[in-house]
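Check out one such.
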Amino acid sequence: MMTAATQLLQRALPQPHLRPLDLNRDLARVADLVELCFAERLDSDGRRYVRQMRQASRNPGLLSFSGRAGGFSGFVWEEDERLIGNLNLLPVTAMGSRAVLIANVAVHPEQRGRGIARALTEAALESADTQGIRHAWLQVDADNEAAHTLYRRVGFQERARRTTWHLLRTPDALPRPALRVEPRRRADWIAQRRWLARLYPAAVAWHLPLNPRLMDPGLRGAVSRLMSDRDLRHWSAAEDDELQGVLAWQSSHLQADWLWLAAAPGREAAALAALVPAARAGTPAHRKLALDLPAGEFETDLAALGFERHQTLIWMHLEL
């Protein structure tokens, strides 16, 4: 039985200006287009990504390997030898299933409104379908209503809204926390793992740099940490000897290290108030801290601790 998405793909008409991405020919121009289209939204990690694309475009050996490995593909829209549209496809495993992640959907500002983004998206979905891939994912900025509308019309459904918060330093004067903070105990892991799964459900955890195996205080975790280049630290918060939350810090090579909150339902704000200052004091002061949480939740509590909203993304999924 064909899904609505499959029927849509079969109705798609050929586009003379649309063709598969050619890494050797296109990558430098893709970098230019991405930089132009997302100039106001590129953070330091995004600018680093653009630089890496340009560097790769000058390295034929790297491009050849990437093409064989299938790690970077997609479609472009070209008119009069000008590349004015791009979409990249990344093979991923999402929630245990083979899938594609649609990324870098960019159309030159002067060429928007012509249906180019939709044509690129439909070509990407058709490509995935012909390869037997049944799941497509993408992320879109919550304030990009035009893109959100486009993807809904193509058949994508919203699965989650997540906000990433950044913290450099906490305010000098914070109220005394109601919870007692101490290093995580081995016995805290059972509750921490359960609470992590609640705040970072499978629909979003697959694309976050969150690896609960690294947090396991047992032998499996020790082996995983030996094979990883990430450092981790944990703090627990308790009230009357009853665990209320655990905060994990994870080092990163990007602009910010990660914090992962695990808290009892209804105790998230109290856990944040107690644990964030401890984490800030116990980690490199020059490094930003990033925290990903459901959009619209704990905003007042996070702002009081010194966090600033970095971005809110809508996670969308389509079953082919």
